[in-house]
Amino acid sequence: MEKTPSGTSVGVADPYERAGVCDHVTGDGRCRYAVEHAQHDPEFAAERRADDYRCPVAADDWAWRDCPHYRDTATSDECARCGLDERRNAHSDARPLLEEHHLSYADERSESAEQASGETANSAGERNESAEQASSTDGAGELAHEITVTLCRWCHAKVHGSWAAIDDDASPDAAALAEREGRKSDELAELGFETAAERDAE
User: Fold this and answer.
1) What DSSP designation does 125 have?
2) Cα dist. 76→81, 101, 140, 151, 180 in Å?
3) E strands in the chain
C-alpha cells in the first residue's frame, strides 16, 4: 500500500489506477493550466501553446503520471469505498458525512516554495496557489501529484488504520447509516407543512 507523509496507508497500491481526468483539462482536450498559470512553468506553457494548448494525455501521447502538472481532486457526492451518500442539512454546521482523502500528495517542496512566495487562496475559496505550482520530483524520481477520492468519515478512518483498501467490497458502517438516516428525518421534518388549523389545535 502507498503511504501518506505521516506513514499511514492511503488504501491503494497504485494511486494512478484510481486517477481520473486532470482538473486542468477542458472539455475539448486542452490544458487550462498552461493558459491560466503559465508564469509558474513558462517552458511547459510554451510547449502547450505551440501545440494549440492540446493536452498530451488527452491526445494519447502521455499517461497522466507523465504530466508535471497533473491533479485529480474529488468531486463525488458518495463514498468511493462503501457508497454512502452525503446528506447536508441547511443551516446546520454538523460535520459532513464525506471527506476528501488523498491517494497521492503534491510535492511538499513545491508547496513550501509557493507558501514562501506569498500566494494565497482567493475570496471565492479556491485552492491556495500552491496547488497550481509546477511539481518537482520525489526522491525516487517520480512526479508527485495530488490525487484524491471521496470517502465517508468511517471508511476514511478504516483506510488510515492500515487494514482497509479503497477497492474493498464494503457496505456502509452501521453508525454511518444511522447518521445518514437521522439527517434524512431532519430533512423531512424541515419540509413538513402544518396548517393554521393544526397549529391552533395544538
Assistant:
1) -
2) 12, 12, 31, 9, 17
3) 71-72, 98-104, 146-152
In this structure, what are the phi and psi dihedrals at residue 189, rounded to the nearest 5 degrees?
-65, -40
Quick one: pLDDT band at residue 137, thresholds 50, 70, 90? very low
Band of pLDDT at residue 8, cut at 50, 70 and 90: very high
Q: How far apart are CA 176 and CA 152, in angstroms?
A: 8
The two most distant CA atoms of the chain are separated, in Å, by: 75
**Helix, strand or coil, per DSSP, at residue 148:** strand
Q: How many helices (H) and strands (E) does the chain have?
A: 6, 3
Contact between 105 and 72 under an 8 Å Cβ cutoff? The reply is no
Q: What 3-state DSSP class applies to 62? A: coil
Bridge partners, 72 (sequence order)? 147
Alpha-carbon distance of 184 to 16, in angstroms, equals 35
